[in-house]
């Protein structure tokens, strides 16, 4: 019946039950040995009765298996909640990690839809970025997650444009330097700079040195809302603008336009969708709730670029991403 399907879509119990199980690392415990609810409760520091109810709920939905004696084991689906599973879902669902914590902001989606503002400050009293900076462990986990995603993206970005035509490229918000390292490795004449928050820039500096690229690559601490290192041939914004609302995205683009040398380019790399105008709807809601940002199509990017004194010169496919090259407006 349609109302049952609608309730299944709306019911918050299952996603929260999964997140609690992930946070308590139930799957890791069961991977070591089967156990009853009471035994598991002692191992994970939970109330025995409440944990038994959680386990029964998830067993009824195929995450765990419960035998007649009340002993639980993992199902193939439950295996995916193990810390060592390659899908990495446990850390993503952990309510005490940066991403699981951020997902709790969806409780205030109504606020975001009514105002267009992030829900995160309503949930935690400060912005996502301020909250992240206040917790070194979560901040390090965030940086590690961004770095872990780069190996899958970097080859397409490297192949998607002839970066060797540039003399000097600034990777704005370039994290631990993974993308710049890939670019410098592929284009031996290219020089590059990573700009990011001071602690992240320090990690990028160490990575460049470890890769033997310190002579051509450097890292500087700073904010992309402040003046950028000037005079480079290109400024790269890879998965940066979607974290920010239109006013902030405009300000970031304006900083790049102010810094780029005459005749240079600003590059925006995002998942604009196969046709350039079909951003991912799930990610779009997350950007709204977490940051007040948004996924954009290229048509959405054009007026922001125009206001920053830039225009779209070309669009280059990069697997599922696109590299949009912006140049100064005449």
UniProtKB/TrEMBL annotation:
Keywords: Methyltransferase, S-adenosyl-L-methionine, Transferase. Residues 14-80 form the O-methyltransferase dimerisation domain. The active site is at residue 242. Residues 106-310 form the O-methyltransferase C-terminal domain. GO terms for biological process: methylation. The keyword Methyltransferase applies. It holds the Pfam family Methyltransf_2. InterPro entries: COMT-like, COMT_C, COMT_dimerisation, SAM-dependent_MTases_sf, WH-like_DNA-bd_sf, WH_DNA-bd_sf. GO terms for molecular function: O-methyltransferase activity; protein dimerization activity. The keyword Protein biosynthesis does not apply. This is Methyltransferase. It comes from Nonomuraea rubra.
């Amino acid at each position: 019946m349609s109302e049952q399907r609608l309730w299944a879509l709306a019911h918050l119990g299952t996603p929260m039950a999964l997140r609690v199980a992930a946070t308590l690392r139930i799957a890791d415990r069961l991977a070591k040995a089967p156990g009853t609810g009471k035994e598991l409760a002692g191992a994970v520091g939970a109330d025995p009765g409440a944990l038994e109810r959680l386990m029964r709920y998830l067993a009824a939905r195929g995450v765990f298996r419960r035998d007649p004696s009340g002993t639980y084991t993992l199902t193939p689906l439950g295996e995916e909640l193990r810390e060592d599973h390659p899908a990495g879902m446990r850390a993503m669902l952990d309510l005490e990690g940066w991403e699981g914590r951020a997902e709790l902001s969806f409780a205030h989606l109504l606020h975001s839809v009514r105002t267009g503002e992030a829900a995160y400050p309503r949930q935690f009293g400060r912005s996502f970025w301020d909250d992240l900076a206040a917790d070194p462990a979560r901040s390090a986990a965030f940086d590690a997650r961004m770095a872990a995603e780069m190996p899958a993206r970097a080859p397409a970005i490297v192949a998607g444009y002839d970066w060797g035509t540039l003399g000097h490229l600034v990777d704005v918000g370039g994290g631990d330097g993974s993308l710049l390292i890939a670019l410098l490795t592929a284009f031996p004449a290219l020089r590059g700079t990573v700009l990011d928050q001071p602690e992240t820039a320090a990690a990028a500096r160490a990575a460049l040195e470890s890769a033997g690229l310190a002579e051509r690559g450097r890292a500087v601490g700073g904010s992309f809302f402040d003046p950028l290192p000037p005079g480079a041939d290109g400024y790269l914004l890879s998965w940066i603008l979607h974290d920010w609302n239109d006013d902030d995205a405009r300000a970031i683009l304006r900083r790049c336009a102010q810094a780029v040398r005459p005749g240079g380019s600003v590059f925006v790399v995002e998942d604009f969708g196969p046709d350039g105008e079909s951003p991912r709807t799930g990610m779009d809601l997350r950007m709204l709730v977490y940051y007040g940002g948004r996924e954009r199509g290229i048509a959405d990017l054009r007026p922001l670029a125009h206001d920053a004194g830039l225009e779209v010169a070309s669009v280059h496919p990069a697997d599922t991403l696109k590299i949009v090259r912006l140049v100064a407006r005449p």
